[in-house]
Amino acid sequence: STIHAIISVLSVLYFFIRYEINFKAINRMMGGGIFGTGDEIMVYSVCYSSGYFLYDLLLMLKYKSVRTTSAMAHHIIILLTFLTGLYTGICHPCHFYFLAEELSTIPLNLKTIYRDKPHLHNKFTLLFVLSFFVSRLFYGSIITIYAFRTAPSFLRIAWNLNDIFSFVIGIIQASLCILTRLLNIYWAFLILQKVFNLKSKEKTKKS
Questions:
Q1: If DSSP codes are grouped into helix, strand and coil, which group holds residue 30?
Q2: Cα 22 from chain centre
Q3: Where would you tag: which of 9, 86, 146, 196 has the fewest CB atoms within 10 A of its CB?
Q4: Do 153 and 43 meet the contact criterion of CB atoms below 8 Å apart?
């Protein structure tokens, strides 16, 4: 998962540096992208991530030790979102931008790897908390806001063209996006709860 996270983040960074970004354009958020503008990178990246999440989900189903309810829910929601976007060509640019949220996965895995080395473990724990709030709450919220700004126009165009299929898929994608945001808020609550519990334990030890 660390390799997947690194590749995902670098792919999004490369796209932001190399190509023109316009979050206000309907086709750059809700549509299927524009050929020749680097959008093929989006498709390849989302396909790669879909394969990873499917493989990781299968591992969770097989091994109870790596299984958590929230992680399984996350993987299932992401797979439904990504695969629907790839199959229909609706919203996959937005899905690609969300891949940068995987930044927090890197220190999360590293703090687990170095759990027997307190100094490194504490540093990676701090990096995880910071990267989680920056990538999944701050950055993710920005992408979500732009996505929901363009969504009404996309849905209106689909409705006016009597494209019920695209209209329904757009609604489904918006609903799945909301679920991922709620899951991130839930995780943020758990992180803050754990941080405050650790601080209270430290105070108790000092007193």
A1: coil
A2: 19
A3: 196
A4: no
Burial of residue 168 (number of CB atoms within 10 Å: 0-12, 13-18, 19+)? middle
Q: CB neighbours (10 Å) of residue 65?
A: 6
* Residue 207 reports pLDDT greater than 60: no
Give per-residue pLDDT as tens, 98-115.
999 999 999 999 998 998
* Mean pLDDT of the residues in the chain: 89
Q: What are phi and psi of 108, to 5 degrees?
A: -60, -45
Residue appearing with tokens 């165009």: 157
* CA torsion, ordered 175, 179, 181, 185, to nearest 10 deg: 150
Identity of residue 68 = T
Confidence band for 182, pLDDT divided at 50, 70 and 90: very high
> CA-to-CA distance for 57 and 74, rounded, in angstroms?
10
pTM value is 0.88
Positive or negative: CA dihedral 107, 108, 113, 118 = positive
More confident residue, 200 or 164: 164
